[in-house]
Amino acid sequence: MKDSSLLAFLALLSNYDYFRIQQEDKPPFYSTGIDRSCGWVLRFDRKFATPVYSEGELSDVRAVSDNEYDCTIGSYTYHIQTLHMKPARIPHHKHKAWNSIANFASVEYISPDKSRYDSETGCVFLVVDPDSLGELTPIEQAQIKSLINVQLKGCGSGKQVCRTVYYQCDPLDTRQIIYTGMYDLETRKPATKVMAYNTNLAQSMTAAEVKKYSALLELARRYYTAQIA
């Protein structure tokens, strides 16, 4: 297949931000972006995690359906399925250094679709929508990846999946405990948990940080109230 046709295929894939990929009989994995690496080796990006690289170069593409493709890469066949189209508009924010988990503790970053009240634990899980963080530079994405790896215990190879950050709040706990951790976007479940906030920790935080976490607690109470109403 000509390079122009392969480039057209990658241009088509650039309209999407979530994929299911399977290399023959190997277990499938998920990606949030597909692009060229070296030559026609493909890089399968994973949100805030280490990417996967194809075993060989892309040489041919065959459409199986409107959203599924069989790709000849090296001596293998990769089956690529597009799962989600990119949003029409991603908000623009001023670029900043992502050097603290508190950076994510903003109500405007919380996804109403992914967040939920869990009746078994009595807790509300507030999940950060990666798109709400705006257009991130490669440096900013690397900073967030490092934060999740180091501060949220997401360093293991098994935790290198499409991921984001979440906050766990008990809306009835007077100690105002908030946990945070890595959220697995593929399984839609929390993967790690560390303490982020409570009434004691608040004593050593800035007023701005306390205000952010207090707003998260208030949002969690609204989720709880809506659930039991």
State the distance separating the first and last CA atoms.
59 Å
* Alpha carbon gyration radius: 20 Å
Mean pLDDT metric: 94
Number of individual domains: 2
Overall morphology: elongated
Overview of the molecule:
- With 229 residues, this protein is α+β, with helices and mostly antiparallel strands.
- It is 20% helix and 36% strand.
- It is built from three helices and 13 strands.
- The strands form two sheets. Strands 2-1-7-6-5-4-3 form a seven-stranded antiparallel sheet, with helices on one face. Strands 8, 9, 10, 11, 12 and 13 form a six-stranded antiparallel sheet that branches.
- The longest helix is centred in the C-terminal third of the chain and has 22 residues.
Break the fold down into its secondary structure elements and pairings.
Elements: H1 3-13, E1 16-23, E2 29-31, E3 33-36, E4 41-46, E5 49-65, E6 68-73, E7 76-85, E8 116-118, E9 123-127, H2 138-150, E10 163-169, E11 178-184, E12 189-190, E13 194-197, H3 207-228
Antiparallel strand pairs: 1-2, 1-7, 3-4, 4-5, 5-6, 6-7, 8-9, 9-10, 10-11, 11-12, 11-13
Q: Key terms for this structure?
A:
single chain, alpha+beta, Protein Yojf, Chain: A, 2 domains, 6-stranded antiparallel β-sheet, 13 strands
Structure, briefly:
By secondary structure, this protein is of the alpha+beta class. The protein folds into 2 domains: 3-85, Protein Yojf, Chain: A, CATH 2.70.180; 101-228, no CATH class. The chain has 3 helices and 13 strands.
